[in-house]
Structure formats: structure tokens, C-alpha cells
Amino acid sequence: IDPRVKGKVTVISSKPMQKDEIYEVFLSILQVHGFSAVQTGEVIKIVPDVTAKQGPVPLVTQGARTEADELVTRVVPVEHVPAAQLVPILRPLVPQQGLLAAYAPSNTLIITDRAANIERLVRIIRRIDRAESDDIEVIPLEHASASEVVRIINALNRKAPGKGSVGKYLLTADERTNTVLIAGDKASRLKIRGIIAHLDTPIETDGQTQVVFLKYAKAKDLAAILDKVARQSSGKKGKGSPGTTGSSGNISIQADEANNALVITASPAIQRSLRSVIRQLDIRRKQILVESVIAEVGINLTTQLGVQFAVDGRNTTNQLPVGVTSLGGPGNSLVSLYQNPGSLGAGLTLAVGRLVGDVQFGALIRALQGDAATNILSTPTLVTLDNEEAEIIVGQNVPFVTGQYTSTGSGEGVTNPFQTIERNDIGIKLKLKPQINEGDSIRLEIHQEASALAASSVALKEKIVNKREIKTVVMAEDGQIIVLGGLIEDTFRDNVQKVPLLGDIPVLGQLFRFTETDKIKQNLMVFIHPVILRDRGTADAYTERKYSYLKASQMEGNLLERGILSGHARKLPDFDELLTILPDEAPAAPTAPAGPPEPARGDS
Q: Which of 137, 131, 457, 476 is nearest to 300 (CA)?
């Protein structure tokens, strides 16, 4: 109890009272004598009203149960009327020992008083805090851009909510008519009209030329579009070079490629129209990450078996063979082998012969089995901008002999021989042009090619190229895996050459037959996985994933431990560590170990 609390009070009741009723009478008596009861935990303090509001007064909410004469604090939100305007109206209704304050940022009232009086004030506030009928006004603009005015006013209200006399409102810009539509109460509309009047003023510039710097678009490409827009706006034909300079009457649009900027000379109305077009076109374009999987399995089995005989009569005047069985087509014949032993082909070749006088007898047994099998699994990855063509090639530039020429002069020997060679790219090729449509669907123009030299023709001059190519246009969703095409080819060829009658003899007929068997089987499947990279975060996530895969491949192969890489090679750092390495802190290239010192001059 405060020392200033003194006196004697007599209470007379006409009926018995409950405990709660007695406490309420006690609070009323304190109020009459200028005191208040402030509860702190389980202790109740009796203090004068003047200092009670500065103590720990209980904070209550709407619907809380309190005594009518209890001193409490309550926060009352105001929705339609500025809270600061209610303070002078409600101040006379609050006693001197009470508190009434407005907080503009949240548009609320803070009231400290008896609970009964606060309830009365809240009922008054509810009657006053009512929305007026929302009308719609259309304000035409002459100099400013409607969309830019709406953006400025909305940004101003977000930065300073609750200040001033602006209540709830809605702003919409109609760029076609360059007007601003306002919906809200009268007070809000009046203040917004004043702001618009200040913004819709002519720009004080020397002449009618502006320089617009671009963020993402190319100035040269955008100049051609703006030139056409300016011609349609002015209704006159323009002159100048499309794409770099456009002029229509007194309108001129030039592209400064060095600074990626546009120099526009036009009337203020045309400039506003062009700026609106620039804002909509100069935006960050999305990127596309396309992962491709090419799986190809090829099997080429060749088996050759044959026997050749030759009887060759030789004398000084005639060196033609008397009789020859040359079976096997592209293989070596006995005669050619005799004339040029260096022409012996692949496989097992046995030659036996006997020279009796001028007659030579020989037999050529040829056995060849060729095996060419490939298993290609490639995953080329390519990133490009929306609606931009990109290409990646991983392979070799292989020379092919397309012709040769040899001229013999009057003297001995060959003069001026030469060959014509054409080089072609052999490997994995991926060319694409993506286009992002509404709804995150992606239209892809794809040219996919996988080519390789056949294993059976690597040692030959005439190279055989296994080529698989797909040209198509597909539609895929973001993150979808789609198959571009598939090819399954199974070819079996059995070729038998034999001597009539003799080749049909059981068992012994094998000596007069040549058998060649080819089995070719090709399986090809191509898949793609397009992903839209909308922002830097998505691009960083996929970059980190690819980098982690590369590092895992290095660690999994144990290239350093196995001695495949030089001991000076450095392991790839973690992705987070890689981002912190500055250019001047990048690891230097490994230097070769120093060799033995050179002997000094005069030493031996």
C-alpha cells in the first residue's frame, strides 16, 4: 500500500455479497478516492491514479474477463480511419490519469484506463471506423507513364504504411489509354490525385533526345523493333538502316553497341511508348539445360573359311596360270599372293606349293574371323539461352582420302604425286534450339548425331563410319525425360562359293568351298532431359551437381594412387572452396622436377 493511502471507509449493503462483488466494491471505493489496484503476480499494489498508468498495468485483449473498475491497457486496431485522427476526438473521454496514444505505422490506438471506460471507447471507435463507399476514378495522364506512376505510388505506400491520410485503395494502370484507375475511399482518392498531379508533369530536358541503357537485350536487335514501333506510332515511313538506325519523320533510334544503349530522339509521347516497350523486352531471359543420353550397342561378326588351288605353267614366253580356283572374294588369291607376298590380309593363311619343271602347284587355305563390337554410352550436356541455337561436338577430326593423282614425266620415276583429303568430324554432336512456351513447356529443335569408325575398318584405307543421326522437333515439360528415337537392326548374311560338283562332295567338299558369314546387330536409343534454369540459384545447384560428379569420378578411379596422373597433379577442391579461390590465388601449373646439374665447363 502506498503511504499516501490513508482514511476510513464504511460500506453498507442491503443484501449479502459474494467475494467477487466485494472486490469490485473495493475497486470502486479506491477509484472514488483517486487510487487504483495494480496486480503484479500474486501481489496487489494500491497506488494513486496518477502513477498507476506507469506501472505494470495488465494488457488485455478483446473478450478478456476483467472487473469494471480495474485499471488495464488495451491495443485497439483501426481499419478504415487513420488512428491519429481519432486521438483528438477521444481525448476528452479519457480521464487525466488515463493514457490515449496512436501508433501510425500499424494504425492502432493504445488506451490505458478503467476497463469499463475502455469498453465504451471501443464501441465509439467501431461506429466511427467504417469504410466509405468505394468509388472508382479514371485519371488520364499527359506526360507520365501510367504503369510507372502506379509503381511509384505502391512502392511509396509499402515503405511508409499508415502514414498520412491514405487508407485502403487499389491502383491499376491502363497502358493502352495511359490512364490510372483508383478505387477507394474519398480521402485516399484525394491524396492519390495530388500525388499523380505532381508526377504528371513534363520533363525539362534540352531537346528530345534520351539515352536508354539496356540490362539484358542487345541494343542492335532492339533498335530494329523500336524502329517499327515508332513508324506505326507516327504513321509515317521511316528511313535509315534497319537494326542500327531508324527514323520516322523527326524520330531517330540509334544503337550504341559499345555501351549496349539506345539513343532515342522523339517527342515525349513517342518516348513514353518506346520506354514501355523497352521495359517489357529488356528482361532476363531464361536458360535451358539439356542433358542427352546416347546408348548404342553394335555387334559385327565375320567368319571366312576357304581353300584355293592353282596350277601355274611357267616358261619364258607364257606366264599365265593353267588353272586357278580363287574363292573368297575380297580375300587374297593364290596368284596375287605369289606375285605380291606383302598383300597378305588378316586371318590365318597357309600356302603350300611344289615347283616341278615349269609347272607350279599350290594351295592357299584362308581362315579369318572378324569381331567388331562397340558399346557407347555418352551423356553430352549443353546450356543455352531461350530461343538461341547451341552446338557441342566431342570427337575427332578424321582425314578421308577422296582422290589421288600421279603423273609420270618424260624422265624416269613419278613426278608430282598428290592426294585429295577431306576431314570430317567423327564423334558426338548435339545441336539444339529451345523455346520456352507458356506453362513451362519447351519446344526443342534437335539435331543429334553419334558417329564412330567401325572397328573392322580402322586399319583399312577405306574407312567405314557408323553413323546414327536424329533430326526432330519435340515438345517436353520442364524436367521431363523423353526418348527421341530408337533403332534396332539385326542383319544376317551367309555367302557360300564353291566349285560345281566338287564342292558338294561330303567331307572332301570343304576343300572346294569358301564360306563367309556376317552378322550385324545395332541397338540405338537416345534420351533427353531438358531443365529450365530460371535464376542463379537453380543454375548453381546443377553446376554443383555436375562438379561433384566430376570430382567423384576422379576419386573413384584412384587416378593419383594408381600412378595414372602425375604426382604433381592436384585433386579437385570442394565446390564451396572453389568459389572462394580468387584468380590470383589459383594453383599454379605444376613444374617439371629439376634434372641433374650440368657439368661445369672443362669437366669430362
A: 457
Which DSSP string do the residues of 514-575 spell out, in sequence order?
EEEEEEEEEEEEEEEEEEEE-SHHHHHHHHHHHHHHHHHHHHHHTTTTTTSS-TT--PPPPH
Beta strand residue intervals within 266-286, DSSP E: none
Cell numbers of 506, please? 561330303
Strand-pair partners of 443: 435, 475
| Per-residue model confidence as pLDDT tens digits over 128-138 | 887 666 678 88
Task: Encode pLDDT of 330-340 as tens digits.
Answer: 444 444 544 54
Domains and CATH numbers, the chain: 19-128 (3.30.1370.120), 136-159+167-200 (3.30.1370.120), 209-232+251-283 (3.30.1370.120), 305-369 (no CATH), 373-401+420-455+462-546 (no CATH)
Q: Tens digits of per-residue pLDDT, 188-215?
A: 888 888 899 888 887 665 557 888 899 8
Q: Is the pTM of this model over 0.70?
A: no
Tell me how far CA of residue 320 lies from CA of 311, 343, 358, 371, 517, in angstroms: 10, 20, 12, 37, 32
The contacts of residue 214 (CB under 8 Å, 6+ apart) are 222, 260, 261, 262, 278, 282
Residues in Cβ contact with 52 at an 8 Å cutoff, skipping those fewer than 6 apart: 36, 38, 71, 97
- Of the spans 69-78, 245-254, 328-337, 412-421, which averages the highest pLDDT? 69-78
